[in-house]
Write a structure and sequence with these properties.
196 residues, Rossmann fold, alpha/beta, 6 helices
Length: 196
């Protein structure tokens, strides 16, 4: 039985394209492998607090008594470590990821758990895991000059690589605010999700 962790990060609830992409992925995955485990964490409705120094110290110390924030951060890390596949549903906000997703990354980027420092530099510890990144945006950033304003895909790929996840599939639904162009790109994105 495989374990999948789905991270939604939109603040738009039912109006979110990226969340509907995640829902489509979950429906497809359940149809193909009903016995597999799927955990969904919605950072739009239940965000992790932005990381503070005292909480980081608690998380790394191995203390038995943890604050609520440190405890939730440890739970987020445990969900990631248990997953075989990570699905990130990421809307583009002001050319980058939502702050809630950045906070999640801050909680799970944990030395000794998801990466380690070696004499040759940092090494990711999550080799063998797979990531599927579902990105939505109001504009179309697939070609220059707008492609230079897309900080979502490069950032997420960098974080995944830092943790050792090199099997990364990106599916984009771009142009949500661009009429027929956006409709066509959204249709193509949902078809790509169904084909996974």
């Amino acid at each position: 039985m495989a374990n999948t962790l789905v991270i939604k990060s939109s603040i738009l609830g039912d109006n979110s394209v990226s969340s509907s992409m995640a829902d489509a992925y979950v429906a497809t995955a359940k149809a193909k492998a009903p016995a597999d485990s799927i955990t969904i964490r919605d950072l739009g409705t239940a965000p992790l607090p932005h990381l503070r120094g005292d909480v980081l110290g608690q998380m790394r110390s191995g203390a038995s008594e943890l604050s609520a924030q440190a405890s939730e951060g440890k739970k987020a890390l445990a969900e990631l470590l248990a997953a075989d596949t990570l699905v990130l549903a990421v809307p583009m906000y002001n050319f980058s990821v939502p702050s809630g997703l950045k906070a999640w990354f801050d909680h799970v980027l944990h030395p000794g758990q998801t990466f380690e420092y070696t004499a040759a530099g940092p090494r990711g510890l999550l080799q063998g895991k797979k990531a599927i990144v579902l990105i939505s945006s109001a504009g179309d950033y697939s070609a220059a000059p707008a492609s230079g304003m897309d900080f979502v895909e490069p950032y997420v790929r960098t974080i995944m690589g830092f943790m050792g996840i090199t099997d990364v599939t990106v599916i984009k639904a771009e142009g949500a605010a661009m009429g027929e162009v956006g409709v066509a790109k959204k249709t193509a994105a949902f078809a790509a999700i169904a084909a996974l």
